[in-house]
Write a structure and sequence with these properties.
single chain; 139 residues; mainly alpha; rod-shaped
Amino acid sequence: MARTHKYGNVLTARVSDADFRAVCERCDEEEISRSEYLRYIVRMIADDARNSERGGVLLDGRSMRKISRELVKWGHHYNQGMHALNSIKFALDHGRMDADWISARLDECELLLAQVNEGRSEIASGIASLEERAIVGGD
């Protein structure tokens, strides 16, 4: 039985062995066909002309969900750390000088802000790895 194709137009391009392997590997990683991959690239450039100058990145849904979850987690920890610091400021402003309470709150702030920094490092590392996976641009 013959396969029916949704699209009738065909593009042909000559590429180096390294470029061909890179496309095939990326398609395998993202679990998409080469045609679908190339359509994504064409649409990225067509939708945003600046992509042709600065390069673009194809992100799969799984990567976007990971980044989104980490950003939400980072925001939660940041918010909790700031809330704890604000409660300390409020206590000091209103004459509550319980050193044990303030010490405990500062320890909580330190822990929460350390978690924020850890999340920030993971996000920065993840975003930096995207630069290595640019699919548009190069030489």
